[in-house]
From TrEMBL:
Protein name listed in UniProt: Ethanolamine utilization protein
Length: 540
């Protein structure tokens, strides 16, 4: 995705047995995996092989990881199986994403790449325990995108499958780059800008939570070259130039247009800076893909991932030298490496854009390969025994999660509506109304009367919002699932799955299996990102 290079996301395994298992017992593990994998028994093991597959605007790539697991709870306590080491054992080259034409992905071409890379990695389908297929950027808009990604997911294991719309892509990239973890660790606000071939996906993180998203049609491939000539100008950029004093047409010689190309690159960098500062004028508005920036608290730092992020890192650390934007434009115009585009000039403009001066630049932990590393390996837990589940509603698979903190001192009803609206925007850009889980915080330890009051709010809002036939899925962080579920039922919300003692957050996906014990406890797999934090740097 971008500027000729990809973005790699990373996933965590965190397998736990919580309340509901006998003290010191580890035998339920095999049964729990069998429930979630619908009868296909997975033997207990101390290591797992995961595969990540990313189909992006510019590139397709595959990553194989080896995860080592260990029981960190000790022999006399309830087992707590966690990932203790992750090694990337194979990274494929970056392939140009194969296309049949402007609207169709070449499914056979993608299959050939993956088959060849499996052989080079020395693995077979039988070796793969789990993984993720992510289709992002402009590739996600191809007519057969869903057919391709589902075909790939069927090749092996329990794969997380996501056609990432721009908001979700930005959140995932921000997790993979380390932005979310940095915001949590530093107790600050950071904007991650994931710049690929066709888009710049912005996600704002503050103190470990997603605060907003925005996407711009800015990327390395908005202008492409061939043998010193402008070969393609993206339709959005053509329209954008109509409200500027700039002009560029396919067929123009680059040596006659280099000044104009650098002006365009600099102006795009300025628009990106303007959006980060929530300045949306006519130029920025033309580049918006969807909604304008929707965060309230401005960032005090920024990092860049994606292909252009990798190029920025190379320019800053000296591994890629350039004396001017013009030099890079001329070089890329004659490039024969498959990436004859504006990626490097755009990176140069972003490095030198003065509008970023008030923001601390944080190097991303992952840039070029921040899309899928290791892939969707399960984080399995047993819910608390105090759950409330309507009969016939389980199992549920691949339910996206949005976090919501209940604050009775604020306006909880309006806050809840905003979170649900953002969830639809991120996870359901096509309006298909899939289930959405709310990870509810702020209700643990409260009096029963407080739960009743909260239930009235949830029942009213969720009753209006739920798609036909779908249950409300609530994930409580404390031991209040059954009590809150009963309050919700009493308030009139009958279609309900309310579980507790599970930690999940924005960008996670959950699988919820059928009850496995008389207590009603259910197995839950939380598919979440492993975060490699950014390198520490001095403030510039």
């Amino acid at each position: 995705m971008g500027g000729g290079e990809g973005k790699e996301r990373q996933y965590q395994v965190d397998i736990r047995l919580g309340n509901g298992a006998p003290e010191g017992s580890s035998e339920p593990l095999g049964a729990l995996f069998a429930v979630l994998r619908k009868g296909r028994l997975m033997k207990r093991k101390d290591a797992m092989t995961t595969v990540g597959i990313d189909l992006g605007t510019s590139t397709t790539k595959l990553v194989v990881s080896r995860l080592r697991l260990a029981n960190t709870a000790g022999h006399t306590r309830i087992p707590r199986i966690e990932i203790v080491d992750r090694q990337v054992v194979y990274r494929s080259p970056l392939y140009r994403t194969p296309l049949l034409n402007d609207s169709l992905i070449d499914m056979a071409g993608v299959g050939e790449i993956l088959n060849a890379e499996y052989r080079r990695a020395g693995i077979t389908f039988a070796d793969i325990d789990t993984g993720a297929v992510i289709i992002t950027g402009e590739t996600a808009t191809r007519d057969n995108a869903r057919e391709v990604v589902m075909s790939l997911a069927d090749r092996a294991g329990d794969f997380v499958v996501a056609t990432a719309g721009p908001d979700l892509e930005g959140i995932l990239a921000g997790k993979g780059s380390g932005a979310l973890e940095w915001s949590k660790r530093m107790n600050r606000t950071v904007a991650n800008v994931d710049i690929g071939g066709g888009t710049a996906n912005i996600a704002l993180f503050s103190r470990g939570e997603v605060r907003g998203t925005c996407t711009l049609a800015i990327g390395g491939r908005v202008i492409e070259f061939e043998r010193g000539v402008v070969r393609r100008v993206s339709p959005v950029l053509k329209k954008w130039m109509q409200v500027t004093d700039m002009r560029l047409e396919p067929g123009w010689r680059v040596d006659h247009s280099v000044e104009m190309l650098c002006r365009i690159s600099d102006r795009l960098a300025g628009c990106l800076a303007g959006v980060l500062h929530q300045r949306v004028g006519p130029l920025e508005r033309e580049l918006l893909v969807g909604h304008p920036p929707n965060w309230v608290e401005p960032p005090d730092a920024w990092m860049v991932s994606g292909g252009v992020g990798g190029m920025i890192a190379a320019l800053l650390d000296g591994s890629r030298s350039a004396s001017s934007c013009k030099e890079l434009v001329i070089e890329r115009a004659w490039a024969e490496d498959g990436f004859a585009d504006m990626g490097l000039p755009l990176a140069y403009s972003l490095v030198h854009e003065q509008s970023f001066a008030d923001l601390e630049r944080i190097p991303a932990g992952e840039t070029t390969r921040a899309t899928v590393i290791g892939a969707g390996t399960q984080s399995m837990e047993i819910s608390g025994a105090t759950v409330h589940v309507e009969a016939g509603r389980l199992p549920l698979r691949n339910v996206p999660v949005m976090a919501f903190t209940y604050d009775p001192e604020g306006v909880p009803e309006e806050d809840l509506r905003q979170v649900l609206a953002r969830g639809k925007q991120i996870y359901d850009p096509g309006g298909e109304n899939p289930p959405l889980a709310l990870a509810v915080r702020g209700l643990s330890g409260r009096h029963f009367s407080d739960l009743q009051e909260a239930a009235e709010v949830f029942s009213r809002v969720l009753g209006e919002d739920l798609p036909g036939g779908e249950p409300a899925v609530l994930i409580m962080d404390g031991d209040v699932g059954k009590a809150f579920g009963q309050c919700l039922s009493a308030a009139g919300l009958k279609s309900l799955v309310c579980i507790d003692q599970i930690q999940a957050g924005d960008g996670d996906y959950v699988d919820i299996g059928e009850p496995v014990m008389e207590s009603g406890a259910v197995p839950v797999a939380v598919k979440t990102l492993v975060l490699d934090g950014p390198r520490e740097v001095k403030k510039r």
